[in-house]
Automatic annotation (TrEMBL):
Origin superkingdom: Bacteria
PucR C-terminal helix-turn-helix domain residues: 441-494
Limits of the CdaR GGDEF-like domain: 275-387
Record protein name field: Carbohydrate diacid regulator
Family assignment from sequence similarity: Belongs to the CdaR family.
Gene3D superfamilies to which the protein is assigned, alphabetical: PucR C-terminal helix-turn-helix domain
Pfam families: GGDEF_2, HTH_30
Length: 507
């Protein structure tokens, strides 16, 4: 979280004597000041007495300290604030809880996922949530039917008490929701928002339940036992998401387990912290292969979403049964299991190859990996393999990231870096000579290099007589001065031709 947010958070709870924010930045950890520390981490907030500051090394970027000699020390601190020593424990505990709050939410969410996988219903989930929010909860469908509520439902309104027994929410409350929708005064997604029903003076926190763009219902937390807090606001959209899964299951839609896989994979692509993803995977008891690759399959020509989600998805699942997958950006991303020697088993590989050929599909495959919470990184690899294969004009339909990693690296270099100057000088000399004399020495050297300096393979590739190749090699050496007996030459020429291809393709 940002340092400025922490200062604002503390100002609402404690009296800060002074504060200074020169350059706002992110803080991801908290530590007590200790003069034995050898260096201060940039992402850490240090708390304590100034006497514990190690003045022999650069001061920490983020610091909260007891009141002391502010003038002498504050100038060396980028982001800092001073507070009274008597509040040290309270300040430290408050910040610690604020750091833990997102993690707690993820753990609660994972627990709820496990509950629905174990067949638990909405009421069980709301009772679990009640332990953390300490206020009554209820889930309504769009018609006002009460789908579930927490066992403890001490809303101080007799109409609500009666409605719980009847199974429908009060008419006045449903009208209030309807007016909110008509006025567009609430979020169009599952973001939690606080409002008040003026007819009953009932304060509530609400999150809408969506399946894609279809509104399924609402989940509410009523402010009864205590004020609605930040944790409730952060947790409620997760409860909404979980509720959607249970509702879809009860309606006989796509399998719940596949939905759980898909949900976590999508969250990882959206940027969820890998540590949080790991906790959710473990708590949900999802099974992944010991060794795996991400394979992205997309049609070479536009077939529409219906084809990809229907025929293509079924074909892939018939090859890789029960493999986690999701539809994303016009294609199917599937986690493919590997053998102990890190290959797709021969039977599945042959079926995949036939499918790619018959359906005119393109596939990108990541490197092998074993930690599923790093899925997003390997999805990016498979996507890069697809993109660079198209830009380089590959005639294949299954593209491995390992064959394109060099080009990905080149593409990541700053544009002001002139790549051509890193090529072996022989390439430029041969291009010039070919242009002036109508020869093919550049093409010959490229084929000879790509064959691993193998005369037989080169003559077969270029349809040359071996004597012609011998003559061309002598001419190449004469013009460029290269020595084919140099053991480093093949490597130097190989990466030079890669760079040349990269530049000529204008990637």
């Amino acid at each position: 979280m940002m340092f400025s947010y922490l200062i604002s958070f503390l100002q609402n709870r404690f009296k800060l004597i002074s504060q200074q924010i020169e350059k706002d930045s992110d803080v991801s950890d908290i530590m007590l000041l200790d003069e034995s520390i050898n260096f201060y981490r940039e992402d850490t907030l240090y708390i304590g007495h100034l006497a514990q500051l190690n003045t022999h090394i650069p001061a920490p970027i983020h610091m909260l300290y007891f009141i002391g000699d502010i003038k002498e020390n504050s100038t060396i601190m980028t982001n800092s604030a001073a507070f009274y020593e008597k509040e040290f424990a309270a300040v430290f505990n408050a910040i610690k809880q604020e750091f833990l709050r997102p993690i707690k939410t993820e753990v609660i969410y994972a627990t709820m996922l496990k509950m629905i996988m174990d067949g638990k219903g909405l009421c069980d989930i709301l009772n679990e949530a009640y332990k953390y929010v300490e206020n009554p909860l209820v889930i309504l469908d769009i018609s006002g039917k009460i789908l579930a509520h927490s066992t403890s439902f001490n809303v101080n309104d007799p109409i609500w008490t009666e409605s719980i027994q009847l199974g429908y929410c009060p008419f006045e409350f449903m009208e209030h929701i309807k007016q909110q929708r008509l006025k567009h005064s609430s979020p169009s997604d599952s973001q939690a928002f606080i409002s008040i029903c003026k007819n009953t003076n009932l304060v509530y926190l609400c999150s809408k339940i969506f399946s894609k763009d279809t509104l399924l219902g609402y989940v509410f937390i009523f402010e009864c036992n205590k004020k609605i807090d930040d944790q409730s606001k952060q947790l409620l959209p997760s409860i909404s998401c979980i509720s959607c899964e249970v509702i879809l299951r009860s309606q006989g839609n796509i399998g719940l387990r596949l939905n759980v896989y898909r949900s976590i994979l999508e969250d990882m692509l959206s940027g969820i912290n890998p540590h949080h993803a790991s906790e959710r995977i473990q708590a949900s008891q999802l099974q992944f292969p010991e060794h795996m690759r991400v394979v992205i399959i997309r049609p070479s020509y536009y077939h529409g979403e219906h084809y990809v989600k229907g025929q293509l998805q079924e074909a892939l699942l018939s090859i890789f049964d029960k493999a986690p997958f999701l539809y994303y950006k016009g294609g199917i991303a599937i986690i493919v299991p590997l053998t102990d020697d890190y290959h797709i088993d021969i039977n599945s590989f042959e079926k995949l190859t036939r499918l790619l050929n018959s359906e005119h599909l393109q596939a990108g495959a990541s490197n092998a990996f074993s930690k599923p919470w790093h899925f997003a990184d390997y999805y990016a690899q498979a996507d890069s393999a697809l993109r660079f294969s198209q830009r380089l004009g590959s005639s294949e339909n299954l593209h491995y990231y390992e064959n394109y990693a060099f080009f990905v690296m080149l593409n990541s270099l700053p544009p002001e870096l002139t790549l051509g100057k890193f090529c072996h000088p022989s390439l430029g000399l041969l291009r010039k000579y070919d242009y002036e004399n109508g020869t093919d020495l550049y093409k010959t050297l490229k084929a000879y290099t790509q064959s691993g300096f193998n005369n037989k393979h080169t003559t077969e590739t270029l349809f040359l007589h071996r004597n012609t190749l011998s003559y061309r090699k002598q001419k190449i050496a004469e013009i460029s001065g290269i020595d084919f007996t140099d053991p480093n030459l093949m490597f130097l020429l190989m990466y030079s031709f890669y760079i040349d291809d990269f530049l000529n393709k204008d990637i």
